[in-house]
Amino acid sequence: MAKFVINEEFLQQVETLQVLIKNNIAGQFGGNHQTRNFGSSCEFADHRDYIAGDDITKIDWNAYARFEKLYLKLYLDERQMHTRIYIDASRSMDYGKGNKAEQALRIAALIAYISVCEMDKVSIYAIHGKSVEEVITAVHGKDMYLEEIGKLNDIVFDGESSISDAIIPTTVGYGDGLSVIVSDFLTDSNYEDAIDYLCGKRRDVFCVQVLTRDELNPKIRGKSHLFDSENIQKTYRRNIDRQIIEAYRRAVEYVTSRIRNYCEARGANYILATAEQSVGEIFLGRMFDMGVVK
Amino acid sequence: MNFLYPLGLLGLIGIPILIIIYIIKNKYTEQTVSSTYIWTLSERFLKRKNPINKIAGIISLILQILAVLFLSFGIAHPVFTVPGMANKYCIVLDCSGSMRTEQGSSTRFDHAKDEIRNLVNGATDGSAFTLVCAGDATTVYEETTDKKRVLSMLDQTEAGYAGASLDSALSMAQEIFDADTSTLTYLYTDKNYENHQNVEVVNLSNGEQNYALSEVTYTMDGGLEVSGTVTSYESDATLTLNLSVVSGEQTYTEQLTVETGSQGTTFTFDTQYSSFDVLSVSIAQEDAQPLDNTVVVYSAAAENSYSVLIVSDNPFFLQMMFNSTGNAVFETISTEDYTLEYGTDTGAPSYPSGYGLYVYDSFNPQVLPRDGSIWLFGLDSNLPDANFSVQTEVELESSVSLEFSTSTSSTVTALLNGVIRGQEGAAGDTNIHVYKYIKCSPYRNYTSLATCQGSPVIFTTQSAYGNREVVFATTFTDSDMSVTPNFLVLFLNLLEYSFPSVVENPLYNCGDTATVNVVGSVESIRVDSPGSETTYLDTSGVEAKFLLDEVGTYTITVETAGTQRVYRLYSAFPQEESVVTATEYAFSLSGEQSYDGYDGTYDALIILFSLLAVVFIADWVVYCYEQYQLR
Fold first, then answer.
1. Contacts with A229 from chain B: Cβ below 8 Å
2. CA nearest B186: which of B204, B165, B205?
3. Which of A278, B14, B299, B416 has its CA 20 to 30 A from that of A228?
4. Would the CA dihedral through B275, B277, B281, B286 be positive or negative?
């Protein structure tokens, strides 16, 4: 079982961060985010011609005096987002030296915290097999966050997981915020469908691939018989030499570039985080670079 | 193929052991990873494997098996037989002095040794070699097939300074050739041979420039005159000759310029020096053979000078006689002083020492000296260590002529050489007459030279200490010795007997045999060669001889009763060895050369160990490569 280790000091550092949402949202609650829809906030956005039936209180009389034509003032609307975080809870996430599960929980907790600070709702789900298990549901406000976030410790990382099969049948919302998938994506199962589905629901999609350094640059050499932690039937038996290591590195590059390219093609965000990196490094460095946070 | 040490093949047991270890050790390491997804995926990115890579896993095993194989074979030391490829070689090496001629930084002899080394190393293993070194004596090293032994023997050989007895070497080579006519005979020399049947002559001469001195002599008539011959081989040259004369503590030098060629030119240094201890003539110019550029001559008279102690109250006549010899240094002491110094008043009687000759004139010492010869005139009482007894004094009514011995022994003949045996009373009577003599009885080993009435009056014997002793059983006052010509002759002969010249000839050629006279009571004669080799001569005979096998000054140290006397002689480079390009008539072996080869051997040890080294390096490279992969 992964341990939830994020201290108060670090939380204060990231409190000032804002999640940048690039898509329009269609949430029903006025959150701290401005949408590209015109709404009833007091922040002026633009003018448009008056059409019969419009609210006459929003006619710009100063513009009428200048142009002798009726213009309507438009104001930006503000809605409350619902951030949904999906954590891959397969066994492969919690095996080996570098603990990907801990890193996944840290990332999820931080994204949740940032969202809460932005007055958004946050739900966190654990993917087990082909099902999604709610861990935290619709948390809003820091007090509630602090009460609920400890439930992440209860997530059990075991078995296999199928991201698409688990997410698609669930309620993912429509145009109302960010969907985050935290996984190692070391699977043959079809996770692209899940990304397509979420994008189709006009959600901002953010894929965080968590790998260990050993997975990126393995130290295994010589005659080795490797067993998959999720499925003992899956084995790999080879005299691992330099050529195989080179092929392995190409395979890693293939796996990471495949998901990166897939995300970029659909306007989704993607980062690769190693289990050994600090969350500060991930959030204050790489996510800044990518514009995921500002 | 044979193995010198077949037990070494037991090492092959290591191969199955190695395989077993490899099988036991060669297991896959099982471990669980978070996901085999990427590992499985990597198979798609694996390049097509080189077929050699299929055996990559066992390359290390193959190399280790090869290492064990080569090591075992190496220890077993395989030797292959090569039919008909070996030969018998007879190598004749000229070790004469001319082979010392310099050729750049080495000599002809060094080049000859290099050539022989090449011949030996290039010969098929199993070939037999006989090395014949022709120096002042011919040395035949036993036949061997061991190349290292041949080369070791070759390293031990050195060129001599004298001529080489190539005739003797030829007869040795002929014997070897007669025993096996397939023997290949090689002669390494610096001489041209017009006829060399069945012999491969390797001429090491390159016609080097050489200047040489020879036939250096001197005369003292009216001053020192030094003459000799100087030769310039190969080409005519104008040479500068330096003469250095050492006399006492003075050194004189003179210089002469001589034009000379291969036929030689006579030179003469005409000086006014009346005597010398040592002189040297040298050529100022440098050449390929420096050994013949200097000749040193030691004065025989200076080398053989001697000291005399005369104990007499009337020494005038004896002083005059010794003074006339020219090379005697004498001291005189009266009988009274002698008694005071060596008599019994101061305790036990003692004796003087450090003189070559002690002359007691009408005086009886209580004990005889232990070193040097002794002359006793008119002894009237017994001496315990004189080896004869004194009986009575015989006074004659009239003078009687002494009868000289008619013995034909060499000693008597030498001592009475020149003595005129005239008839008594006849005109020109040269005999020694006595009026009174002392009757003596020598004990043993004495030589009577003159008698009176059958009693020996002049005789030689030896003292109890082995020193030569001359006894005159009369005195100058009781005889007419001092005025007879025969005494003068006898005196000189007895001096020669008492002081035989240790080195009669101070100048020899290298290769000659030098003669050293063994003086009485000598304890040892040590000879130090120019190369600082020390030998002790046999002193049991009258003469001792030794071979001069180096060029330079030999030092002869004669030790007699605790005192040492040093003599020197010079061994000059032989003239015939100075010739740069000598031509000899023949060095031929009679008989028909056959060409029957012998079974040679091929020693594969070097190849095996080379392969072993390659395998070790390859294994090391494989190991490093594997370690590199593990990084």
1. 32-35
2. B204
3. A278
4. negative
Q: What is the CATH number of domain B507-572?
A: 2.60.40.10
Q: How far is B612 from chain A (nearest CA, A)?
A: 27
The residue to which tokens 């000059």 are assigned: B572
B211-298 CATH choice from 3.40.50.150, 2.60.40.10, 3.40.50.700, 3.40.630.10: 2.60.40.10
Nearest-CA distance from A272 to chain B in Å? Answer: 16
Q: B45 to chain A: which residues are within 8 Å by CB?
A: 246-248, 250-251, 254
Cα–Cα dist B419/B606, whole Å: 82
Query: Which residue in A has a C-alpha nearest to residue B35's C-alpha?
Result: A228
Q: Tell me how far apart the terminal alpha carbons of chain B are, to the nearest angstrom.
A: 47
Total-model pTM: 0.52
Checking if the pLDDT of A32 tops 60, the result is no
Residues with Cβ < 8 Å from A169, sequence gap 6 or more? Answer: none
Tokens of A227: 């067993």
Angstrom distance (rounded) from CA B136 to CA B511: 7
Q: pLDDT band at residue B446, thresholds of 50, 70 and 90?
A: confident
Who's near B274: CB < 8 A, 6+ residues apart? B220, B223, B224
Q: Where are the domains of chain B?
A: 2-82+605-628, 88-207+581-596, 211-298, 306-498, 507-572
Q: What b/e string do you get for B88-111 counting C-beta neighbours within 10 Å, with b at 16 or more?
A: bbbbbbbbbbbbbbbbeeebbbbb
**Spatial CB neighbours of B507, under 8 Å, sequence gap ≥ 6:** B216, B295, B297, B298, B569, B570, B572
Predicted confidence (pLDDT) per residue in A222-241, tens digit: 888 899 888 888 899 888 88
pLDDT at B608: 84
Residue A227 class from Cβ within 10 Å (0-12 exposed, 13-18 middle, 19+ buried)? middle
pLDDT of residue B414: 85
Q: Are B537 and B528 in contact (CB under 8 A)?
A: no
Cβ-based contacts of A216 with chain B (< 8 Å): none
The CATH fold of domain B88-207+581-596: Rossmann fold (3.40.50)
Strand partners, B526: B536, B557
The per-residue pLDDT for A28 is: 34
Please check whether the two domains, B88-207+581-596 and B306-498, share a CATH topology: yes
Q: What is the mean pLDDT of chain B?
A: 86
Q: What is the pLDDT of residue B281?
A: 94
Q: Kind of pairing, strands B522-528 and B552-560?
A: antiparallel
Q: Please write the tens of the pLDDT for every residue from A60-89.
A: 899 899 988 888 887 755 556 889 999 999
